[in-house]
Amino acid sequence: MSAPVKEILQRSVRLDLAGAALNGNLAVPAGALGLVVFAHGSGSSRHSSRNRAVAEVLQRAGLGTLLLDLLTEREEQTDVITAEFRFDIPLLGDRVAAAVDWAAAYAATSSLPVGMFGASTGAAAALIAAAERPAVRAVVSRGGRPDLADEALESVAAPTLLIVGGRDEVVIELNRQAFARLSGPKELQIVAGATHLFEERGTLEEVSRLARDWFVRHLGAPSAPPA
Question: How far is 207 from 209, CA to CA, in rounded Å?
Fold first, then answer.
């Protein structure tokens, strides 16, 4: 017998972050365990079908989600032509960190522990934010480029899960290199048969399951006392 679906507060939000006005979609189930902020990848947005599918699984598990555009509308229009913003990792990292601050001040999310879900280049932005904001309690990367977080990797204390497709050979190696530099709790999961975008049957569902379990484990439990 399936668990009853919890009432979910859903609203569009506009965040004034790091000198930019960014659009987001916020969903917070009743009695939420935590909030997961999504950092989208190269050329993507809050409308990403893959990230929305993951977000729905997290919501059913009692986790709030914030799917956020990391570029302004004007920047997106420019980026389509020049691709100059999607690889500006410091800029994206600053905006994700500012989103964590926004969540801490926003009434509906201020009491919730925060996790980060990053895809592609958004994974690097999520890890930079986690390094800069100790309030971040868990990070998940889907087909990410955590290597682009560079020196921030050694400063990430939050438990971090790297998920890579088994047929995404170049990105597997980049994730292994980044994994070795992470000093906090960490896991690397390779999804058999999946390519970079996890388009193969059942592979995105596996990503969703892994992410859900990771966030429930690390956001649903009390935070560890300071050392």
Answer: 5
Token pair in block for residue 71: 């570029």
> CA separation (Å) from 18 to 15, 37, 100, 143, 173?
9, 16, 12, 26, 33
Tens digits of per-residue pLDDT, 85-104? 777 889 889 999 999 999 99
Residue 141's nearest CA partner among 211, 220, 94 is 211
Domain boundary assignment for the chain: 8-219
Contact 70, 92 (CB under 8 A): yes
186-191: strand order across its sheet? 8-17, 20-29, 63-68, 34-39, 114-119, 136-142, 160-165, 186-191
In this structure, whether the domain defined by 8-219 belongs to CATH 3.40.50.1820 is answered with yes
